[in-house]
Specification:
Layout (H helix, E strand, L loop, with lengths): L4 E2 L9 H9 L19 H18 L5 E6 L2 H13 L5 E6 L2 H10 L4 E7 L22 E5 L1 E2 L4 E2 L11 E4 L16 E5 L10 E6 L16 H6 L9 H17 L2 H21 L4 E2 L10 E5 L3 H13 L2 E2 L10 E4 L6 H21 L1
Parallel strand pairs: 1-13, 3-4, 3-5, 5-8, 8-9
Antiparallel strand pairs: 2-10, 6-7, 9-10, 11-12, 12-14
The structure holds pyridoxal-5'-phosphate.
Pyridoxal-5'-phosphate binds next to helix 3.
């Protein structure tokens, strides 16, 4: 069967060249006579893989030397607890911006550990926008301020960061990781699960400013203590070895394409095709205010549930899979991460145009 265009919010498409290379190397990695899946994480071959993955992260994201790059497990969701455990250790206060489901979940988890304040929320607007964060709401003695840069479920992207002064800013970048350049120096920590833009599910990447490490609460589980993970170069226990290898291949793919500035152009071009169509269509409408539209996750609706269902079914039958919106919001959502080729978006829009025409005639 021909490969489909997978518009899933995660796990999502990986570059075909990466999958082919992994297939080629499946039984014999680099003359070792074994698969990376079978390799000791303490071997010199594997050491080269994890070091290369880290070096590529540093190069592509322009990560300064005073930041650690950690390869962990547990998904972004585990960090929702690890973050307060590691950092809510001064005043015991943390300020959260709630711009969608993921930041809301992170906020709820942090409430178990200390004094959490929601400093801004767009819940009243159904997260169709990113809330403004009034400086007066932020607490200067907070241990950190938390944001989710790209809210995957609702499809909004925070383009302007809150003015946090000297308080460390922590950002969930799961669904916009490596999608465009990001100034790491503005953050105390960024993190994300790999399954949206980087590798198969099971790998979580945390990039943390060194001076924030070493103050975890005493009852922090060893596996959630970032300092211990950093001191052991992410090899305190067995890391998700194969995922880190795929991550390395994806980073090499991005480098070959020209880096994150090129990636951004590629992503903007794709998003523009889809948003332009949504703006001109009489049947399909985008759900997010224009200035906050995500480049990665594009939610849209028609004015009828039946039509939504019919469209989703037709998509699946025509090789555009996982276009159904998140179960909590309904409608449709096209996730167009780095690995989605421009043809995938062009073909989807052609298909939407035809669908609209046919259904107009039928009326
Ligand atoms: C997918 C996602 C998560 C959850 O990731 P897991 O790895 O499944 O825990 C958290 N935050 C954002 C922004 C996401 O897109």
């Amino acid at each position: 069967m021909a490969r489909v265009y997978n518009f899933s919010a995660g796990p999502s498409m990986l570059p075909e060249s990466v999958l082919n290379r992994a297939a080629d190397e499946m039984l014999d990695y680099n003359g070792t006579g074994e698969s990376v899946m079978e390799m000791s994480h303490r071997s010199k071959e594997y050491d080269a893989i994890i070091k290369n993955a880290e070096a590529l992260f540093r190069e592509l994201m322009n990560i300064p030397d005073n930041y650690k790059v950690l390869f962990l497990q547990g998904g972004a969701s585990t960090q929702f607890a690890a973050i307060p455990l590691n950092f809510m250790n001064g005043s015991g206060k943390a300020d959260y911006v709630v711009s969608g489901q993921w930041s809301n979940k992170a906020m709820k988890e942090a409430q178990k550990y200390g004094d959490v304040k929601v400093v801004a929320s767009s819940k009243e607007q159904n997260f169709s926008c990113v809330p403004d964060v009034p400086k007066s709401e932020l607490r200067p003695d907070a241990d950190y301020v938390y944001v989710c840069l790209n809210e995957t479920v609702h499809g909004n992207l925070m383009r302007t960061l809150p003015d946090v002064g000297d308080v460390p800013l922590i950002a969930d970048i799961s669904s916009c990781f490596l999608s465009e350049p990001l100034d790491i120096t503005k953050f105390g920590m960024v993190f994300g699960g790999a399954q949206k833009n980087i590798a198969p599910a099971g790998l979580t990447i945390c990039i943390i400013r060194e001076d924030l490490l070493g103050n975890a609460r005493e009852d922090t589980p060893t596996m959630l203590d970032y300092k211990i993970m950093a001191d052991n170069d992410s090899l305190y226990n067995t890391p998700p070895c194969y995922n880190i290898y795929i991550c390395m291949l994806v980073l090499e793919w991005i480098k070959k394409l020209g880096g994150l500035e090129k990636m951004k152009q590629h992503n903007e071009a794709k998003a523009k095709i889809l948003y332009n169509f949504l703006d001109e269509s009489e049947m399909f409408k985008g759900t997010v205010v224009k200035k906050d539209r995500s480049l990665m996750n594009v939610p849209f609706v028609t004015d009828s549930e039946e039509l939504n269902a019919e469209f989703i079914k037709a998509c699946t039958e025509n090789g555009f899979i996982n276009i159904k919106g998140h179960r909590s919001v309904g409608g449709m959502r096209a996730s167009i991460y780095n690995a989605m080729p421009i043809e995938g978006v062009e073909k989807l829009v052609d298909f939407m145009r035809e669908f609209e025409l046919e259904h107009k005639e039928a009326k």
